[in-house]
Amino acid sequence: MNMLKTLFHKLGISEREAAPLRISWGLRFLYQVGFIISWTIVTALFVEQFGIQHLLWLFLGEALIMLIGTSIASVLLPRCKLRTYLFTTIILTLLALMIAFGYNAEDIRFFVFLILAKDLFAFQTSAALYRQDEHFFSPNEAIKMMPFVESAITIGAVVGAALTVNALSFVNTQEVLWLWCGALSIMALIVASLPVVLHSIPQFSLKASSEQKVAHNPLRESVKLLKKNNFLRLAVVLVLLQTAIFSVVEFEFTKDVQSHITPHEEVLHESAHVTKFPLQASFFTEVQERIQDIADETTAVIKHASTNIIVHDTLAHDLGMFHLLFSMLALFVQLILTSKVLEKFGVIGSMVSYNAILFLSLMSMLVGYGSVNILRALQHGFHSLGEAPYHMSFYSFRSERRESVRLFLEGIMKPCGVLLGVGILLWTPGAATFWALLAMTGILLFLTPLLRSAFTALSEENIVGGCENVTEKMHAIEVLSQRGHHHPVTILAQELQSPKTPFIVQKKIIQTLTTLNHPQILHIYLEMLRDEKFSDELKASVLRSLLEMTFLKSYWESHAFGRYHLISVLE
């Protein structure tokens, strides 16, 4: 525990921030461990039975099940608290998994209930976890915390893969899924204990109690919001295209790995016919040979990618280095790079940087300087640059709308993106698939900067649009303080001078303007200091802000007239 406190201290995480971070990180880690186990088993079962050529139909079926789950969630969400909903989805996932255990692994019903556990219930758990993070952290806290939460995805994936491969060496496939049961059970215990844990953390109960539930069906509310909100319209297109790109890359990556496991002639032979259920027992007897083939291919990739850099002594060493290099890239991005990029370029700028990486990776691959394996590694290794700002952008919506927006984007548009990806793979000639992805990534690069003005307009609406909720205004001010907005000083100054603005909000604005450190605010400050309608306490805060602004030291050298006015006001 002392080591953990030391680590948090070195990372600049306060004790109050550390408590929710531990909860959020732990839940996301356990979820990802279970996801990797379930994804590996489901994909392996399907490919073994039907062949890689028919994997698209699995994608199609999973996307449809996700859409059904979202429709059910739209009915349940307005009727229960977020914690209750989160706990319910975890328990339902466990229940579907336990029903699957009632059948033999060769039985189609085992496969069906496994799919339902993964895509009908667990899929909704993921969105609920991100929604919970919005209660845990303010927008400014999220800039620092979200990359750490995202790191749980990478570490959970590595741990989940390691557990799966090692467990398959001494138990059958069905028993491996008990690891998923264990992860879900721990998650349920953590969620059940949240009221006790959060009660001991200052301000948590205040944040949680301020949540306003959606009064109507969230999906209908999202459609209404879509008609008048330009930011949401652009976000829909971006989520749709990006999910389609990820789906195609995942399929092509899986196909490439499978092609190295089975000789090409055998792949063609297997794709010419489809066997019927029940699942063949050969999968369970030959899975170790398959894993060994994957290990041999991984070794070859490592040797090719790291010639003269890594000494290959043993297979275990090569596999360890592969996972180390892959996870270290993702962790470096999540723990160090993402927060710096967010601070430097803001939410929209970070999303642009990630799309640029995808575009350059695809371009390099198409001209012969890469492969789908490298593309997949870069997509996942740098995913935090896209995911963290994407989830932070939900702070631009008022809390009563976030539930609807997240359900719509995560539960409807992402499955639709998978369907789009399946359509590209079915109807695009093989040689043109990656050119289609390049075109889609180019569209992403063009559209993402357009989010900037819409993002600012939405934040401005939350500040000056008549909302009387102080917490909402505080969050909107923090969102507007992030880099990349259009004229944030003007918007904040307008609210600062409004006679209806509560004093605590005015102090928050002054604190934010101090952080922005922009000379544009100087003349507005001078007007406020001259105006008798502002209280002495507020003017004292303005003066402290001026003293803390670093731009003034160089500003006075070329603006002597402004300095003269300040001195005359002070006198």
How would you briefly describe this protein structure?
The protein is mostly helical. The protein has helices at 2-10, 15-50, 55-76, 82-100, 108-136, 139-167, 173-192, 194-199, 204-209, 218-228, 230-261, 264-271, 282-305, 315-366, 372-381, 383-392, 399-427, 433-447, 451-464, 470-480, 488-497, 503-516, 521-530, 536-548, 552-558, 560-570.
Q: Could you explain how this protein is built, in words?
A:
There is one protein chain. The protein has 26 helices and no strands. The protein has helices at 2-10, 15-50, 55-76, 82-100, 108-136, 139-167, 173-192, 194-199, 204-209, 218-228, 230-261, 264-271, 282-305, 315-366, 372-381, 383-392, 399-427, 433-447, 451-464, 470-480, 488-497, 503-516, 521-530, 536-548, 552-558, 560-570. Helix content is 80%, strand content 0%. By secondary structure, the protein is mainly alpha-helical. Helix 2 (15-50) packs across helix 6 and helix 5 packs across helix 17.
